[in-house]
Amino acid sequence: MVTVVRMADLRSGQLSVEEVQTAAADAAAGAIALFVGMVRDHDHGRGVTALAYSAHPSAGAELGRVAEKIAASYPILSLAVTHRTGDLAVGDIAVVAAVGAQHRDVAFAACHALIDDLKATVPIWKHQFFTGGDSEWVNGA
User: Fold this and answer.
1) 15 pLDDT band (50/70/90 cuts)?
2) How many domains does the chain have?
């Protein structure tokens, strides 16, 4: 049996786009949709200087559940996803997802659903730090 979910990890260190893309590679895939989420320097008109992601102990298992749900919901060949925890600077990679499918429309749709479900259900919280010295917690990844 071929494993569709090839990676679903939380990581405290830097993420590798190449590692996730390689994990999603499949000889039968005509497309790999790749999403790279980055730490941006602003949010809602305020300057952002850094982020810190915290995860509930169940977050890794929940990320795996989301990945399996997407694999069962779309005719995809492969899926790989990683999300950072800990302190990140502006420009750092926060999440990488790759979905392989025979055709691009399915790969795009499944990758989009994966990121949306991850943000909505995986217990990862973002602590944003602003240029003025204040900060806020944001629910979801």
Assistant:
1) very high
2) 1
